[in-house]
Q: What sequence folds into this?
């Protein structure tokens, strides 16, 4: 069992019972209701253990109890939270009963019982302490089953809308990327065409150069042939001139 903070319980409560009898245990039912506070009402209380001691005219008492108490308020539990809000759903309705456990001590003096009651635990669902559900600072944005369901449905719809926007943004981005890719491919194709034209021009230039080189080679060959013929003719002429010179010399002699 989880115990509630001492700030809620363990307050010294004193009752003066008329014609109090030190041989009989004090009645603690009313004091339990007062100790729990906030309008709780005890509908059943069972003493689970007790001890009564006499010391001459005085007496002392210790007892442990289990009780069923009626809730004076509706309690909620947290089912979600975010920035600036806390969402809760119903946990227990007003008027439902929950078990409570505690102890009582008493001293009999001067013809009366002075009783102190200590409520150790209110057994709420899940073992949560009562103080967790009645803390003052909790602001409830939506409460109750219908409002909770409506809020959760709206939140789920908002999540779906956000996901749809994200998908649409992704598709738009993909479309834009595809358009950029098409433009880039068109630019590449245009560059390829220009390069093909340049290569064709170069091939034509190289072909023209090859033709020119062939013509030059042929001219050089013809020139070589002509030069060889001229050199042969020159040799014949030189030989004829030598013969003429020889004949002239013979005539002169």
A:
């Amino acid at each position: 069992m989880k115990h509630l903070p001492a700030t809620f319980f363990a307050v010294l409560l004193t009752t003066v019972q008329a014609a109090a009898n030190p041989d009989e245990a004090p009645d603690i039912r009313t004091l339990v209701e007062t100790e729990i506070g906030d309008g709780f009402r005890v509908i059943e209380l069972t003493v689970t253990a007790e001890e009564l001691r006499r010391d001459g005219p005085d007496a002392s008492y210790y007892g442990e109890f289990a009780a069923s108490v009626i809730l004076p308020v509706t309690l909620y539990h947290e089912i979600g939270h975010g920035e600036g809000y806390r969402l809760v759903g119903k946990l227990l309705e007003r008027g439902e009963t929950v078990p409570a456990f505690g102890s009582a001590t008493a001293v009999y003096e001067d013809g009366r019982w002075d009783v102190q009651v200590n409520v150790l635990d209110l057994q709420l669902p899940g073992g949560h302490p009562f103080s967790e559900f009645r803390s003052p600072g909790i602001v409830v944005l939506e409460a109750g089953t219908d409002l909770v369901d409506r809020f959760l449905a709206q939140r789920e719809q908002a999540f779906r809308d956000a996901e749809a926007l994200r998908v649409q943004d992704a598709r738009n981005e993909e479309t834009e990327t595809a358009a950029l890719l098409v433009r880039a491919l068109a630019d590449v194709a245009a560059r390829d065409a220009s390069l093909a034209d340049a290569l064709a021009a170069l091939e034509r230039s190289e072909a023209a150069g090859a033709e020119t080189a062939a013509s030059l080679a042929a001219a050089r060959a013809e020139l070589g042939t002509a030069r060889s013929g001229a050199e042969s003719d020159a040799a014949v002429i030189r030989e004829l001139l030598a013969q003429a010179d020889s004949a002239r010399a013979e005539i002169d002699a």
Notes: Confidence is low (pLDDT under 50) at residues 1-19. The CA atoms of residues 237 and 243 lie 10 Å apart.
